[in-house]
Amino acid sequence: MPHLAVKDVRAKYGSLEVLKGISFSIEKGEIAALVGPSGSGKSTVLRALMGLTPITGGAVDIAGETMNYSSAKEVRAARDRMAVVFQQYNLFQNMTVMQNLTLAPLKIKKWNKSEVMSEARRLLGLVGLSDKADAFSDQLSGGQQQRVALARALALKPQILLLDEVTSALDPELVNEVLDAIRKLANEGMTMVIVSHEMAFVREVADKVVFMDAGQIIEAGTPTELFDTPRTDRARDFFSKILRH
Amino acid sequence: MDYKFQFGVVWDNFPELLEGAWLTFQLGCFAFAGGAIIGLICAALKTYGPWPVRFVVNVYVVFITNTPALIQIYFLYFGLPEVGLRWSNEACLIIGLTLNAGAYLTLILRAGFLSVRITEIEAGQTLGMSLLQQVRYIIVPHIAKSIYPALANFFIVVLVMGTSVGALIGVDELTGQAINLSSVNYRWLEYFTVVAGMYVVLTFVASIGLALLGRWAFRVKARIF
Ligand SMILES: Nc1ncnc2c1ncn2[C@@H]1O[C@H](COP(=O)(O)OP(=O)(O)O)[C@@H](O)[C@H]1O
Ligand SMILES: [Mg+2]
Predict the structure, then answer these.
(1) What is the value of ipTM here, to two decimals?
(2) Count of H helices and E strands in chain B?
(3) pLDDT (tens digit, 9 = 90+) per residue, B158-191?
(4) Which residues are registered as beta bridge partners of A192?
(5) What does the alpha-carbon distance between residue A101 and residue A144 come to, in Å, rounded to a whole number?
(6) pTM above the 0.80 mark?
(7) Under CATH, which number does the domain B8-218 receive?
(8) In angstroms, what separates the C-alpha of A91 from chain B's closest C-alpha?
(9) Closest CA to A153 of A73, A86, A93, A88
(10) Which of A6, A180, B145, B175 has the CB geometry, 3.0–4.6 Å to B164, for a possible disulfide?
(11) Which chain A residues are Cβ-neighbours of B119 within 8 angstroms?
(12) Which CATH number describes the domain made up of A4-90+159-242?
């Protein structure tokens, strides 16, 4: 039984169908990478999984439980099991790093305070920001903010972590510090769905690559299969362009 | 230029000026607080309401912000009794100042509503926040922080410029008190020198208080001068 199964998920913006039946699945501890040209619907897949963009069809299984996002309760169930980090980190600007990490576990989940605090400190250590607990987001670099966003997402102990182009908004010299943090999570066995243009990184960490175009999955397989021996013209085109540099 | 300053009479009547200053402070606080409630409601309606409601709010804001406060208060005090609505001068002043402040605060607060970032709200949603929790933990703190300097400035405007209009309908706030006293003994120059000083002290104290409050509550590094 797969840990995450996306089953024929569809979504529309107005009359424009941007997801035309998306299906893929991964096992516990695996990493799927969504790749494809800009506008192909990668972000919408993650937004649909988090209940930010309503789906017009399909369902999602997480650890054997089926969710179809048809009610507020279903959406909450999905948000209980998954966490997301976006390109633009979206930290709460009026709070310190520590408050960003602990707000949801303390105020929404009402978890035990001392456990939440020590878990938050562990996560800050994991992303290499132990000394920034009391900083505000405007006192941090983009890479640091993105690592805080990563830690904040992990503070809710999600079963699955979704990452949407988390390095795209960063200066090149800051990209590696964020990728390093994701590598550590991969080594800890975190199940992840990532959207990334860092193809070398995708090849290194992903168990499965899902190539999307115009709201559909064109081809899916291991990184080697897709990068080195793509079966479709569209995939071959895309990878030959993007892998050249 | 052989005017002889005589501050003695002013000091003799200083307690009455202090009473006036206290009334000025109270009027400023009342008008600002009432205006903030009106402003909050109108800003929310102007941002999220249906168009007929937005239209009514716009008429109110445009009408108030494009006419002098003095005219608005004269309208209440001298105009309305003609149609049978008669209120005391202090009531007219408070109502007038509150409606006036409400219109300006609608504009300030609306800028705050518009500055809330949808991405931060989405981050809250994905962390499992209910609508009420989003308002409490994201929207309100964000608005408060982003418009705090404008709010603090406007409080000073209401406190000084707004309340002194009361003198013209016989309210004994600081300016009114100074006019009353100086028209008895014609020491205009002395009275208004002292009163100007008292306004400066009043706004100075209010500014420092607001700056400290802002720094403590919202991390706003407001410059006092
Ligand atoms: N808020 C929106 N309103 C309307 N259309 C949107 C919106 N967001 C995205 N789209 C459209 O949906 C399609 C997929 O977008 P997206 O999922 O962001 O693609 P990707 O992440 O692969 O670049 C694009 O055609 C985009 O223009
Ligand atoms: Mg995208």
Answers:
(1) 0.87
(2) 11, 0
(3) 988 889 988 888 889 999 988 888 888 888 888 8
(4) A31, A161
(5) 14
(6) no
(7) 1.10.3720.10
(8) 7
(9) A86
(10) B175
(11) 86, 88, 90
(12) 3.40.50.300
Cα angle, residue A183 at apex, residues A198 and A32 outer, rounded to 5° = 60
**What is the structure's pLDDT at B1?**
67
CA A193 – CA A5 distance, rounded (Å): 11
Which atom of ligand 1 sits closest to the CA of residue A36?
A: 22
Question: 3-state secondary structure string, A62-104?
Answer: ECCEEECCCCHHHHHHHHHHEEEECCCCCCCCCCEHHHHHHHH
- Comparing A108-112, A144-148, A169-173, B106-110, which segment has the lowest mean pLDDT? A169-173
| Cα of A228 to nearest chain B Cα, Å | 36
Using a CB-CB cut-off of 8 Å, the residues of chain A touching B137 are 92, 103, 107
- Distance, CA of B100 to CA of B159 (rounded, Å): 13
**Cα angle for residues B41, B44, B48 (degrees, 5° grid):** 145
Q: Do A94 and B141 touch (CB under 8 A)?
A: yes
Q: Does the CB of B117 have a partner CB in chain A at under 8 Å?
A: yes
Residues near B172 by beta carbon (within 8 Å), at least 6 away in sequence:
B19, B20, B23, B180
Output DSSP code: residue A166. Answer: T
Q: Which of residues 89-128 of A touch B (CB under 8 A)?
A: 90-94, 103-104, 107-109
